[in-house]
Amino acid sequence: MVDPTVVLIHSQGNSEGPLREAIEFYNPKMVFLISNHGASGALLVNKHLEEKDTNKLGRFVKDIEYSELLFIEDAFSSDTVLQMFTEIDNAKNKAKEISDSQELKFYAGISGGTKMMVVGSALAAINGGISTYYVNKESLEDSDNLLLELDFLNDLMSTISWLREHYANEKNLAYLEEVIRRDKNRLSTNATEIAESMKPITEKSVRNSMRKLKIRSLITYDESKKPYQYKPTQLGKYVVKMFYNGQNE
């Protein structure tokens, strides 16, 4: 099985440091920088990228097969977030055209550029099914392992993509809401009790859905103890607030 082609979509400020960390961590084949015209250093960083400068961007820069610098018009306006959405979509579409139907894995950096650009990158990544990362600044106390993958955002992105594909089975969220309700009221929450409170749902249906919800990190339970006692995760509580309020019952 061929591994997917890794594509970085990196919000670029004036420093090459975060980009170097991301290239070292992901070893991408394509890199799209998104910057604003006020970040003069972005042009120099892009020059290092085009020249595959290993001194500035590390050894894996030589493996990059395509790179491009994209610009938003204004990094400090009410439209900045929308501009980031637009350019991230633009980068994704270009990568798909270049890849010739290869499977792609997208990563979005949310540490460079202005704060408005970072907000736009994060929201666009969640909406667009893109995994996110953040790069800390190097310090005397910490110069290693500067790149952090943002687990909550990435789990949320994955769940949103899953819901878009499988929302026809809205019962999954009904079950999740029932788990949250029972947890809030300190009630025991196993398959028998959920099925009883959601008649005519069967215990088998409950258990099947609980497995799916656990895979998506929306609930948790200890598999060594039976009957399983289901507990909602923070992600599960957040997803229910976003997507479900019982209107589909």
Concise structural overview:
The chain has 10 helices and 8 strands. The protein has 249 residues and is α/β, with parallel strands linked by helices. The protein has a 6-stranded mixed β-sheet, with helices on both faces. A two-stranded antiparallel sheet has the order 7-8.
Walkthrough of the structure:
By secondary structure, the chain is α/β, with parallel strands linked by helices. The protein folds into two domains: 5-149, Hypothetical protein VC1899 like domain (Restriction endonuclease-like) (Rossmann fold), CATH 3.40.50.10770; 164-243, Arc Repressor Mutant, subunit A. 47% of the residues lie in helices and 16% in strands. It is built from ten helices and eight strands. A six-stranded mixed beta sheet has the order 3-2-1-4-5-6, sandwiched between helices. The protein has a two-stranded antiparallel sheet with strand order 7-8. Helix 5 runs parallel beside helix 6 (151-166) and helix 7 (171-184) crosses helix 10. The longest helix is centred in the middle third of the chain and has 20 residues, at 80-99. The mean pLDDT is 89.
